[in-house]
């Protein structure tokens, strides 16, 4: 169930998956690292299946959480070709970077993540 204004661990956990050095900001190099981690076959695209497998590898078996994360996948597939490539991630980063300082802080990420997915997930996320 989604509800605006409820605590949302999912956005925080996804932010932390991007923020490799845990400095509170996502940098372009961290977006590239995230992309490479999810591109398990190395073809420079992330298929829906690769994304789903990576989500499940984080022990995310909650159906609602999976649904939100797959919606995230669909929403950042900006050219609607069914796969994510580096240009999709670059656009995601540019859109999330509200103050255009070439860094995405947790607030910017969470705000944009919620815009894409329809709001916070109620209850604990896992992973």
UniProtKB/TrEMBL annotation:
Where, by residue number, does the polypeptide cross the bilayer?
A: none
- Can you provide one Gene Ontology molecular function annotated for this UniProt record? calcium ion binding
All copies of domain EF-hand, residue ranges: 26-61, 64-99
Tell me the lineage of the source organism: Eukaryota, Metazoa, Spiralia, Lophotrochozoa, Mollusca
Q: Which organism is it from?
A: Biomphalaria pfeifferi
Say yes or no: keyword Cell division present.
no
Q: Which InterPro entries match?
A: EF-hand-dom_pair, EF_Hand_1_Ca_BS, EF_hand_dom
Keywords per UniProt = Calcium
Q: What is this protein called?
A: Calcium binding protein 1
Domain of life of the source = Eukaryota
Name the Pfam families on file. EF-hand_5
